[in-house]
């Protein structure tokens, strides 16, 4: 069965799978401009650091394709930078959109300085750059899957099949396709080395139960859903071999910001002597941030905790604390950080940037 596709782009037409409607409905919605993309990202109709960057950049490509070339390259560059700066504000913790914006602005500057390139050609080159992100991300994800599966199998060479725990959603719904942590799980399944995946529900937004479980069932990968509060018991009961999670931002020292609840899984994995992996493209590593203390943590609306849809599930008037992410210290990432370039210990990242 084909892997789920959450981002559809063809010849300037962009559609995304509205993840707020999963698992009840698979509904694609059009993204006509940067403002549509910003709203979809902010409302979490699309989420996952790689997917955020891809949808943001493709929305700009959609706009540029419809736009008549400005009079000067300087004017084009200003327009592109303004749009990208706006997109970066949609979800501040995920670094991929920020780095994608920096790369595009750098290209704009190079094109502006190149006197042999006219405005129309510069616009076309920027659009091609933005559109290439989709295919590049899928290739990176498949490489992450292969590197991660190989490393986990090597470190569990005496075991015929493996039991893996994962958190949040890191699959096709969070990327251009295939996935990061879930991509590793897909590769293990393809190699016939996967016994069972244990996915956490991932409160309060239930990305695990709504999205990861949906992907696993869709692709007939053997899986069991557990509540977040069952993680320690599940590790002990089912003899989990490894925990694999994604990342929204990795600091230079390997500290990793990911969906809230990741930190506690790392602590529990350490206590149970279970390998803990982070799977992320190199674009999620922010070498400008020295450690996790400097990573901005987004706080989400209280209604995500107090309501399920329109139904109130918490006492009216209760105060809430709802950070979207937490930071796992590098020393708890015992398996390594899985990237498209290979698997590295947290302190080995810098030489490979």
UniProtKB/TrEMBL annotation:
Subcellular location: Cytoplasm; Nucleus
GO molecular function, one term: S-methyl-5-thioribose-1-phosphate isomerase activity
UniProt KW keywords: Amino-acid biosynthesis, Cytoplasm, Isomerase, Methionine biosynthesis, Nucleus
GO cellular component: cytoplasm; nucleus
Active site as annotated: 248
EC number annotated for this UniProt entry: 5.3.1.23
Pathway(s) per entry: Amino-acid biosynthesis; L-methionine biosynthesis via salvage pathway; L-methionine from S-methyl-5-thio-alpha-D-ribose 1-phosphate: step 1/6
Catalytic activity annotation: 5-(methylsulfanyl)-alpha-D-ribose 1-phosphate = 5-(methylsulfanyl)-D-ribulose 1-phosphate
Enzyme type, top EC level: isomerase
Top-level taxon of the source organism: Eukaryota
Biological process terms in GO annotation: L-methionine salvage from methylthioadenosine
NCBIfam families membership: eIF-2B_rel (TIGR00524), PRK05720.1 (NF004326), salvage_mtnA (TIGR00512)
Cited PANTHER family: METHYLTHIORIBOSE-1-PHOSPHATE ISOMERASE (PTHR43475:SF1)
Role this protein plays: Catalyzes the interconversion of methylthioribose-1-phosphate (MTR-1-P) into methylthioribulose-1-phosphate (MTRu-1-P).
Family note: Belongs to the eIF-2B alpha/beta/delta subunits family. MtnA subfamily.
Record protein name field: Methylthioribose-1-phosphate isomerase
UniProt organism field: Daphnia sinensis
